[in-house]
Amino acid sequence: MDRRKFLGKSMLGTLAGTLGFEIVFANKLPSNYLPLFLQDQDPFKLFGKDKEMVVLNNKPWNMEAQAHLLNDKVTPNKYMFIRNNGIIPTNIDTSQWTLTIDGESVQTQKQFSLQDLKIKFGQHTYQLTLECGGNGRSEFDPPAKGNQWTIGAVSSAQWTGVRLRDVLESVGLKSDAVYIGYHAADNHLSGDPNKEPISRGVPISKALQDETLLAFQMNGEDIPLAHGYPLRLVCGGWPASASGKWVNRISVRNKVHDGAKMGGSSYRVPCENVSPGTKVEDENMCIIESMPVKSLITYPKSGALIKANRKLNINGHAWAGELQVTQVEYSIDFGSTWVTCKLEQPVNRLAWQHFSATISFPKKGYYEVWAKATDQNGKSQPMVLPGWNPKGYLNNACHRIAIKVV
Ligand SMILES: Nc1nc2c(c(=O)[nH]1)N[C@H]1C(S)=C(S)[C@@H](COP(=O)(O)O)O[C@H]1N2
Ligand SMILES: [Mo]
């Protein structure tokens, strides 16, 4: 495919806008000319990411953070992972963008412009934690195919938009509505316009939660292009694949949504635990819903040196899908004994929580600091890999960092 053909001038303006600068003589650009900043395809520049982010794939673009980059309480764009299943849409004209609500279970199909959404419905802001279902995949054995995420496919940004519930209620749902599915403007890697790269959804009960948003802002600004500009569904606490980027249609379904990547082994795990390497039949696979309890030590960076007799302050975040985290503990003796950390309340439901502790080490030498979170139902993170599954989802094993006391 020749990218140049896709780049209309209005889109260049939009793209430059979301990157935070203006192409001053955009109206003088020869037609079919691709500006250098798009030609070089430096993903860090292109997406406004920090140089320490790690690129896992360039077709499609997938990029993750390292633990120490995620130390901010609210994740800024530059440290936010990117997970794409297809090609990022480029021909975005916000004045023409529409959201269609359709499906078997709406009273009447309806279309909204972005402006309609912004003026007809109340706007709400929540900090929402989004973790890719495959975060941690790289540790599974036998290995699972897919992006080899280590720990960095998680973010907790502030999202502003309208409630999906308000929009659905204004359209009217039939009593048989059980699920919603999103459709979006990104393109399938094959270039086939009839194929969607991904079209997932959530049960109606999740769709109607206060915090489920059709968002048009992230961290107080237009959503960056790579994260779903100009409109994104955000379903915090669930695998981030449920949060459709570049959303232009929501279908209200009378059955479990059957869009791309809803079936087979996509975002599904064996309903019962299986031994590693087992082949699992489709009917024994269950859709991932709320994500499991997990935590990340974001300060210091693994490998830090500290002087003997000095105390070490650690910081991090913990989250538990739909649930609250009630305890975080640390261990410096490989999990033999645990000490409770200071834990903050979330700023709102579905936002991650911050923990900290001050650690003393008995003598010089090599240590690891392990962190373990527990959710409100009393479930804790496993110290080693949890249940193997064909696509390597839901690895919530304890995070650990290396420390040398010198
Ligand atoms: N339209 C669309 N929405 C999408 C995706 C995609 O490829 N296309 N990827 C999903 C997956 S698998 C994840 S983990 C999150 C990643 O969100 P982020 O790139 O903003 O971090 O977006 C989800 N929404
Ligand atoms: Mo994902």
Automatic annotation (TrEMBL):
Chain ranges of the Oxidoreductase molybdopterin-binding domain: 87-259
Keyword Electron transport set for record: no
Cofactor (UniProt): Mo-molybdopterin
Record keywords: Metal-binding, Molybdenum, Oxidoreductase
Gene3D superfamilies, A to Z: 2.60.40.650, Oxidoreductase, molybdopterin-binding domain (3.90.420.10)
InterPro entries recorded: Ig_E-set (IPR014756), MoCF_OxRdtse_dimer (IPR005066), Mopterin_OxRdtase_euk (IPR008335), OxRdtase_Mopterin-bd_dom (IPR000572), OxRdtase_Mopterin-bd_sf (IPR036374)
Pfam families membership: Mo-co_dimer, Oxidored_molyb
Domain Moybdenum cofactor oxidoreductase dimerisation, chain residue ranges per copy: 287-405
Highest taxon in the source lineage: Bacteria
Keyword Oxidoreductase annotated: yes
SUPFAM superfamilies assigned: E set domains, Oxidoreductase molybdopterin-binding domain
UniProt name for this protein: Sulfite oxidase
Source organism of this protein record: Flagellimonas algicola
